[in-house]
Amino acid sequence: MSLAVAAGFQFWLVHELKNQCVRDLRVAPVIAGGCLAGSFLFNALWLGARAKMRPTTVRAALFLWVVLVTVGTAASGATLGQLLLHREVCPTLVSDIPLVLLQYASIGLLTFSISVPHALKKRGGSVQPASSSEEGGPFLELKKPLVFL
């Protein structure tokens, strides 16, 4: 939900910047909003591929989702940088809303939506320690000792 709101903020910013400057400051927020909105398609593809047990599609969809979210987050940061320098680039920019605050809120929502799912405990299972397998034995058995030259 917060990822969708952050994407919406980017498109709102594009609307606010429309036809206000000689230089087009809408490129970064269009990239950010487009990538963040597009990431929902690959998230849905990932979920569908997991349900149908298609490992190659799962990996490809997850890879593309990560790429889009990363590019969208970077473009959100670029948009913030442009807004902080808008007085030099576009002194005629006028808005009823605080655009820099809107961008900080968008970046905060992105940070929240990316990090929180990794911190929450998954439903229906526990995390296995990396040092042991499910049977309790060693996770990785070495057949031969390592020999260095």
C-alpha-based Rg, rounded: 22 Å
> What is the count of helical runs?
5
- Derived from helix and strand composition plus strand pairing, the structural class reads mainly alpha
Distance between the termini: 55 Å
* Low-pLDDT regions: 127-132
The main sheet comes to: none
Give an overview in words.
With 149 residues, this protein is an all-alpha fold. It has five helices and no strands. The chain has helices spanning 2-17, 27-51, 55-84, 86-89, 99-119. Helix 1 packs antiparallel against helix 5 (99-119), helix 2 runs antiparallel to helix 3 (55-84) and helix 3 runs antiparallel to helix 5. The longest helix is centred in the middle third of the chain and has 30 residues, at 55-84.
Lay out the secondary structure.
Elements lengths: L1 H16 L9 H25 L3 H30 L1 H4 L9 H21 L30
Helix pairs in contact: 1-2, 1-5, 2-3, 3-5
